[in-house]
Amino acid sequence: LKSNPSNNEEKEAQTQLTKSDELQRLHSQALSAYEQEDYEAAISLLDEILAVCVWDAELRELRAECYIKEGEPSKAISDLKAAAKLKNDNTEAFYKISRIYYQLGDHELSLSEVRECLKLDQDHKRCFSLYKQVKKLNKQIESAEEFIREGRYEDAISKYDSVMKTEPEVPIYATRAKERICHCLSKNQQATEAIKVCTEVLQLEPTNVNALKDRAEAYLLEDLYEE
Fold it and tell me: TPR repeat boundaries (predicted)?
């Protein structure tokens, strides 16, 4: 504006300055809302800012944190993936994406994302620790599924027991393991045990189609046709 004053440029400059002041005010409010744990309000304010500041990685990371706190992990992943592209060597974003996928029970995508973190920094302590855990779990699940394909149901059950020991903290892995154990017991014609384990799964997930089918097969083995 000082270098080349003219009416048009002055108007444009004033408009941008007003917008900039408004965004700074919204940013302060968003940070305040986040600190007060009002994540819904923070998200709403960050939505307004990011509509203008589309390429701001740190604001996307902040909104992702709010989404995590609000129990909306898929939206958090979307923001973190954008942040990983917008900021060079963003190991933290890859680590967080991997953690979210892991908590959701998607061990394969978790493994893929944590590898991206280690590509950027092979000495990243938290990424390496997570990598070891996910890799071990992934290997056990792959091995169990291979046993099922080969009809080695006892071996598969044993392997899925190991899965539950490897990850006792995230409930979805125990549920998935029990679902597959229920399948193995039913296929192995161990009807009583199959009914017991399938019922445990269905108490947690009443509409689990796989467990319903496998329990039905087990009931057939016991001549319990009504059930």
Answer: 91-124
Look at residue 101 and tell me whether its pLDDT is greater than 80: yes
Cα(50)–Cα(47) distance, rounded to whole angstroms?
5
Helices and strands in the chain: count of H runs, count of E runs: 11, 0
Helix or strand run (H / E) with residue 38: none
Q: Could you give the CA distance from residue 89 to residue 82 in angstroms, rounded to a whole number? A: 13
Distance of CA 184 to the CA centre of its chain: 28
* Owner of token pair 């991206």: 116
* pTM: predicted TM-score of the whole model, two decimal places: 0.88
**Residue 10's pLDDT is what?**
79
Residue 15 has pLDDT above 90, yes or no: no
Contact 40, 53 (CB under 8 A): no
Tokens 């014609």, residue?
189
Answer for the pair 104, 75: CB distance below 8 angstroms, yes or no. Answer: no
- Can you list the pairs that 216-220 forms with residues at least 24 positions away whose Cβ atoms lie under 8 Å? 217/186, 217/187, 218/185, 218/186, 218/191, 218/192, 218/194, 219/191, 219/195
Domains of the chain: 151-226 (1.25.40.10)
